[in-house]
Specification:
Length: 209
């Protein structure tokens, strides 16, 4: 689940797009990930066929996954557990896995417009990761300048910028600016408090952050 969740969070891909990725869609040479139609799934629109940047944090995670002991056995990047027995198949039912991840994460919050509220135990779904990526990407730099809404819309597979402007307009003009999209708990230590101490203890014990 760690590489899968990281791919959702660091590509902004839709559920079917990420689950239908093939190993060959990840290029470590070009540092890109390509969402394209294949035998496992179609894409939502023509604009959904796109190539986006492979962010450094995701590159590290996927390298360890693809070339590690638990590497995917065939073409599918995230195959169904049954693939080793019944033949290659896309991972389909991920709700129980998602519930396990959110239970492990502990206290989580969702944004509704400009308001934040505590999320219910079974409420976090892959669409939340897509929104998280969009919010983070809008706060990055593109060749030293604030990234354009058009670029973010294109990366998400939208045909225009209307949805980005409507949903993420609350971010405002003054934002934190970063060179890359990444998620590291250490930078939020001031707000996490005791939770960060617990996460660091898990990391020392060998668990995933």
């Amino acid at each position: 689940m760690y590489p899968l969740v990281a791919t959702f969070l660091l590509t902004g891909g839709r559920r079917s797009e990420v689950l239908g990725l093939e190993v060959g869609d990840v290029s470590f040479d070009r540092k890109t990930i390509t969402f394209r139609p294949n035998k496992w799934r179609r894409l939502k629109t023509k604009k959904s066929h796109r190539t986006i940047r492979l962010w450094p944090q995701l590159e590290k995670i996927l390298r360890a996954y693809i070339f590690g002991a638990n590497a995917p056995p065939g073409r599918i990047l995230f195959p169904s557990p049954s693939s080793r027995v019944t033949g290659e198949a896309v991972l389909d039912e991920i709700r129980p896995l998602m519930d396990g991840v959110t239970a492990y994460a502990g206290e989580l919050y969702l944004m509704e417009g400009t308001q934040r509220r505590r999320a219910e135990a079974n409420e976090i779904r892959t669409k939340a990761f897509r929104h998280t990526y969009a919010s983070a990407r809008l706060q990055t730099l593109d060749e030293g300048r604030p990234v354009s809404i058009y670029t973010v819309a294109k990366e998400l597979g939208h045909s225009d910028t209307a949805m980005i402007e409507r949903v993420y307009g609350h971010l405002g003009e003054i934002r934190h600016r970063a060179k890359v999209v990444e998620y590291r708990v250490q930078q939020h230590g001031k707000h996490l408090g005791r939770r960060l101490v617990e996460l660091r203890a898990r990391q020392r014990a060998g668990a995933r952050p």
